[in-house]
Specification:
Strand content: 35-45%
Radius of gyration: 13 Å
Shape: globular
Number of strands: 6
Number of helices: 3
Oligomer: single chain
Order of helices and strands: EHHEEEHEE
Distance between the termini: 23 Å
Helix content: 25-40%
Length: 110
């Protein structure tokens, strides 16, 4: 396994992610509860690079549009280009694309 995606599903784990990554991901709790946002902790098992990934759910014309809203490292630093590109490739295969390339999907993985 090259990349590990951990879906953050409860408040305790969201607080841990916020503290570990030193950023404000905890402030997204209400959006997560409403189903508008999904947070993942992502790790490159070879380089050790980690990031917090936010996938948002946008309703448009009775469709669910899944889009990567943010993907940041510790202290909201920019993710390395190879890590970012590899994760985006994986997500594209799951019909989730960056906010610049929105894909319409009926099945929301939230």
């Amino acid at each position: 396994v090259l990349y590990i995606f951990e879906k953050i599903v409860d408040r305790k784990r969201l607080i841990q992610e916020s503290v570990m990554m030193n950023h404000c991901v905890m402030s997204y709790y209400s959006q997560i509860n409403k189903g508008d946002s999904c947070i993942y902790h992502v790790k490159d098992t070879i380089s050790g690079e980690i990031g917090t990934l936010e996938v948002i759910n946008i309703k448009k014309d009775d469709k669910n549009i899944l889009s990567v809203n943010q993907f940041n490292g510790v202290w909201n630093t920019k993710i390395s280009e190879p890590f970012y590109n590899n994760i985006m490739t994986i997500l594209n295969h799951q019909n989730i694309q960056s906010s610049k390339k929105i894909f319409v999907n009926d099945d929301v993985p939230f």
